[in-house]
Amino acid sequence: MLNTRRAACAAIAASAILGVSAAADVAYPTRPIKIVIGFAPGGSTDAPMRVLAEAVSRTLKQPVIIENKPGAGGTMPGVVLQSAANDGYTLGIASLGIYRLPYTTDIKWDPAKDLTYVIGLTGYAFGIVVPASSSIKTWAEYVAAAKAQPGMLTYGSPGVATTNHLTMEQISRKAGIRLNHIPYKGTGETMQALLGGQIDSAAETSAWATFVKEGKMRLLVTWGDKRMASFPEVPTLREVGIPLTQTSYWGLVAPRGTDPAIVSKLHDAFKTAMQQPEFKQVLARYDMEPDYKSSADFHRFAVDTMKQEKEILDLLGLSRK
Description:
CATH topology of the largest domain: D-Maltodextrin-Binding Protein, domain 2
Strand order of the largest sheet: 2-1-3-10-4-11
Strand content: 15-25%
Order of helices and strands: HEHEHEHEEHEHEHEHEEHHEH
Radius of gyration: 23 Å
Shape: globular
Helix content: 40-55%
Structural class: alpha/beta
CATH superfamily of the largest domain: Bordetella uptake gene, domain 1
Distance between the termini: 66 Å
Number of domains: 2
Largest sheet: 6 strands, mixed
C-alpha cells in the first residue's frame, strides 16, 4: 500500500512538472526579447536584423529589441551570452570572428559547445578595391604589381586576425604574392585611408559599394561563390584562379542550455521572417542574400569553421601561445 501511494504521489508530481513545463513552452515569450549585435547601428548586420526583429515581434507578440555592442571584431555577443540566462530572452549574433576567439584570446568557453545555435541567416559581401586613380585596372594587374615589388603593395583591413586579414593572407599565398598589411580600427577608417591615398588597396565588406558606383574606387574581385548582382562585370576569386570563397556567414545564437522548445519557436519565427520581401530588400542594399541554415546545420557549420580557423591561424603564426 505504501509503495502504491508513493508511486501515485510521484506520478502526480511528474505530471505537475510536465504541465508547468508545457505551459511555459506555450507561454514563451511573455516579455521583450533582446538581440545583441557586435557591430554599430546602421551597418550590414544591424539593418537586416532590425527588419527581422520587427517581423518576429509581430509573430511572437512581444517587442524584439536590438542592442549594439560594437568592438572586439564583432565577438561581444558571444561573450555577453556566457553570463546571460538561458531563458530565451537574451540572444546574440554569431559571426565568423567568434569561432577564432579560443585561438587568439584567453577565454574559458568554447563557441561550438557553449552557445545554442538557433538559425543561420546570411553572409557578407567582400571584395578588393583600389582607388579610381590607381593604374591597376584588373586582378591580373594587381598580382603583377605585387610580384614586381614583393611586400610593397599595401592593403588595408579592419584589423589583425579579422576575416578580411586572414582571407587576404590566404589569397596572397594562393596567388604567389607578398603584400603589406595595414590594419585599421574599422571599415570606416580603411575606406578613408584608401580615399586619402594612404594605402594602395583595401580588403573589405561592401562598404565600398557606394564609392565604386560613384567612380571613386575600382572593384577588382569579389569573394562570394557567384558574381554580385550590383557588379556583374567583376569576377569572383574562383574565376581568377583562386579556389576560395568567403562570406563570413552569420546567424542567431542563444545561451547554452536554452530549452529546445524555445529554440524551435525562435527558429520558426525567424525562418518565416526571412521569407519577407523587406528582408531580401535590405540585404540587397549591401549586396547580400538570404542563406538559411537550420539549427543543426548552423551548429555543424560552427564546429567545422572552428577547425578551419585554427588551421589558418596556425599556418600564419597568429595563434596565441
